[in-house]
Design goal:
Helix content is 24%, strand content 42%. Strands 1, 2, 3, 4, 5, 6 and 7 form a seven-stranded mixed β-sheet that branches.
Amino acid sequence: MQANGDPTHANGEPVLAAGCVLWRRSPADGELQICLVHRPKYDDWSHPKGKLKSGEDALAGALREVEEETGHTCAPGPRLTTLHYVANDRPKQVRYWAAEATGGRFVPNREVDRVLWLPPAAARERITQPRDRDLVDELLAVLRHV
């Protein structure tokens, strides 16, 4: 830990985070839908994700973040790509899983003010960061083989 209490490691260790590409079948027509969250702090649309707590297992953290941000519980599926990028001048590593929504209801909160359930093509277009778009394609590929 750095002297100011920031958990960023002085030796350049990445900030560890995890999340899910959350999906469900539409209640109306059974078509695949992907959940995106809107974070007002960044005014962006992304997959639910967040920083891991100290010593927290990545999958447990991913499931916790999904529930905190979307109000939904989920069943984790196949592991997806781990993204590496720089955020706020710090290296960040985000591990992702495919996860099927199993229940719950969204309630707006300080971190996430809106969620959308979109068909894959619309989700891909709505996602703010290009690096997050490939996760939609990866989800589609793993669901074809499940």
